[in-house]
Design brief:
There is one protein chain. This protein is α+β, with helices and mostly antiparallel strands. The chain has a domain at 85-206: D-amino Acid Aminotransferase, Chain A, domain 1 (2-Layer Sandwich). 28% of the residues lie in helices and 33% in strands. The chain has six helices and 14 strands. The longest helix has 24 residues, at 145-168. Residues 242-252 have low confidence and may be disordered.
Length: 252
């Protein structure tokens, strides 16, 4: 696409005005960050893999009736999405104890939780995306009670879908985070899954070995992040078996 207007640049993506009203173009960068951007690097091929993986998951959700902002992939690094108003929350679904939950509650990583736990963080990098409750969300008007009911429903449906897809290829969905956007249609609004779903936003462990196949590889210096993401793509059939695992294969 020729000259475009940049709307926003984040840690992993750039958003541009779309070619049609009500659309945006989402560009996936190779940048990797952790610990609220205290740790940074550029990982060759990461953006290509995340674009393909997010396309795979968003398409799957659309196909089972879970609304998302995703419309179609444009090329190896860009996808066309509906423009939406992002609710300023990260919605986290946890199936196993890991990361900050383990630290906060002293629960050993990998411990199965009695049921999926939904948590919320207020999206503000300067504050470190602090954990908030539904009381905070209601008090500060970030979302209505109806919105919250719909958000929980969407999050748990995403969890059911993602857990099944991953289990089928020998991967445990430990936890994940999503963002929710409001799409306006006349006087009505509906909530959709927005942003991305990729190993950047999920914890994925090999069921047999416990090998980490997500951004914890970068956070904890456990090896090649591209190799980990490529392994997820290979198992899901996004990369051909002939791929050598060292980077994304350019398949349209």
């Amino acid at each position: 696409m020729a000259r475009r207007t940049k709307i926003y640049e984040g840690k992993a993506k750039i958003l541009y005005e779309g070619p049609e009203p009500g659309t945006i173009v989402q560009y996936f960068k190779d940048d990797a960050t952790a610990f609220n951007a205290e740790k940074k690097d550029v990982i060759d091929g990461k953006g290509v893999l995340n674009n393909r993986l997010s396309e795979f998951f968003m398409t799957g959700l659309n196909n089972i009736g879970v609304p998302t902002h995703f419309l179609r992939r444009l090329n190896m690094r860009e996808q066309l999405c509906r423009s939406c108003e992002i609710i300023p929350l990260e919605v986290i679904v946890r199936n196993y104890a890991a990361g900050s939950l383990s630290k906060r509650l002293g629960i050993e990583e990998g411990t199965p939780l009695p049921r999926p736990i939904v948590e919320y963080c207020y999206k503000d990098d300067k504050l470190g995306d602090p954990l908030v409750t539904e009381e905070h969300i209601a008090a500060f008007g970030w979302a209505s009670q109806q919105d919250m009911d719909d958000i929980v429903s969407l999050a748990l449906r995403v969890n059911d879908f993602m857990s099944g897809v991953m289990m089928a290829v020998g991967i445990r969905l430990v936890d994940f985070k999503i963002e929710i956007g409001r799409v306006y249609e006349g006087d009505f609004q509906r909530l959709v899954v927005a942003d991305e779903i990729s190993p950047d936003s999920c914890r994925l462990w090999d069921i047999k070995t416990g090998q980490k196949l997500d951004k914890d590889v970068f956070r904890r210096d456990l090896g090649s992040l591209t190799d980990a993401y490529a392994e997820v793509a290979r198992r899901l059939g996004i990369m051909p078996e002939s791929g050598n695992g060292t980077g994304p294969v350019a398949v349209n």
